[in-house]
Amino acid sequence: MAIRTAASSGPSCWSFSSMARLLSTVTAFTALAAAPAHARAQAQQQHFSEQPRHGSTASADSAWAPTSVLSTIQLGGSLTRSSAVYSLEKRDSSHGGDSHRWTTAVRGAHQGGWVEATTGKGTSKRKIEMLPAAVDDDLTLYSLDLAPESDSGATSLAVTVSSVQSHQTVPLPAKLAQNAESVYLLWKGDLLAPIAGLPADQRRHVKEIKVRVKTPTPRIVSYETPEGFEAHQQTGSATLTFTSKPGVDFSTLSEQIAAVHFQQPEAVAAIRKLDRIVELSHWGNNLAIQDTIDLFNAGPELDGQFARIDFQKASMMRRQGITAIPSLSLSLPSSASNPYFYDLVGNVSTSHFRSSSSFSSNGILPSQQQKKRNSHTPAVLELKPRYPILGGWNYSFTIGYDLPLGEFVRTRAEKGSGKYLAAVPFLTPIKDVAIDAVRVEIRLPEGARWGFSSSAFYGLGSSQTDSSRPRVCARSDIHVHTPFPMSTVSYPAFVPSLFGKHHTVQEGGAVSWTYLDSTGRPTVVLTKEGCTDMHGGDVLIEYTLPFYVDWFQKPIACASVLASLFVAIALAKRVKTTIPS
Fold it and tell me: In whole angstroms, how large is the CA radius of gyration of the chain?
């Protein structure tokens, strides 16, 4: 089985038009961070007021109420994708309520994962701003902004709430022999989850709920249907449909737990921990990325001992990917070069790298070859672990590659200001593979300027909000814009720089040391738990690196070391070590 990466939600290489939009966005963030202290405090207070409140699921009264809900749950791998389409209806004016907002709930969103709300279809599709309103046990309530549609005078509206969550299925049976022919997983869930947390009057307004559960194969071993629903599956179909019974009052109906036992066609891969180190080098014109990955087979555990000969027999019959993870395929940016792959033992030679230029162009007209070269075909890094990863086994390894700095770093518009804007890939998403914990360490060039001011955080929290809202950490000369909320963001400490009165890092703070460093590299550390294949955006970092620091700090540091060495040798030669006669 080869696990292939999903398309990143953010671009790996920037076009000049998108860069212009990003520059304008960060300029607005810079102006916000440069505001007076009382303004920053007011903005910070506004942010914390938007954080979820615990212990309450009472949603705000809204003029909108759902009449029907169509939910789709897609099972497979270590990720579960769900989308609920709400058919909203605007109630009469006698009811009152806010006509611009509507509140819904997502189960398990505070534990991580991806949540997004949209409306419309095709070219008219747009994202809806989601503000976390409250958290109670396993429910997270979000307030959705419906202002554009409500202002247009519409009385009906379709809203789609999509989510991607990890580890929603368990292997059943929990243990399997090495030569097992199939892997089976069990999913259990509440069919009323899309309307959980809604007030009783809105639940009473719902006339029908339909839940479609899609499995990877039509092989569904068994399923359980709650009392308030009816189940239906067409012959040969991989979709099981649960439909609410006519005349059901959802305001009084308790949880409706359904279960589906289905066949999984390949091993269940997951990543327990991913540590990424990104190093920006202006002198080397290079952006180096290194990932340390703890890969884990989350499928049924191996029952008995591992037999290499049985595994080789299964590989000849092309069945080794059912219970084991034999290989991994990563899609890297098209400009990736100098890849490497090693583990605790040493270098692993069972890998193959196909650069973007190595893909064959045979049978393509010359006019189409140029178009293909401009399409940024991703490079592929095919990895084969040192041993097959069976159920319950894990494999820790490290990969890395280089990228040209010019594709990910741009100079700000102010000429000679020394301000730069960098787009750092947060992670390389892998389709249908959950990542439990991610730590990204971004090492800026040595001498990057950091001013001291009270930090202000905007939109950085554990709850998912719409990606259009700014999530910025600002410290004077540095600004970090994250594509989604982070668990934590840490900054370096401050001491006087070698040049001028600007601040740089000190030993003991978030500082990294590499070759020919004299003061260390300022380092931003971001962590996030519960990541999915949708968390592949770019982290935008704006920093200041004065030209005199960039050009002269390393040469002066090296010259000082060499001069000190020459002086030490000269002084040593003047010391007499012989005993005078």
Answer: 28
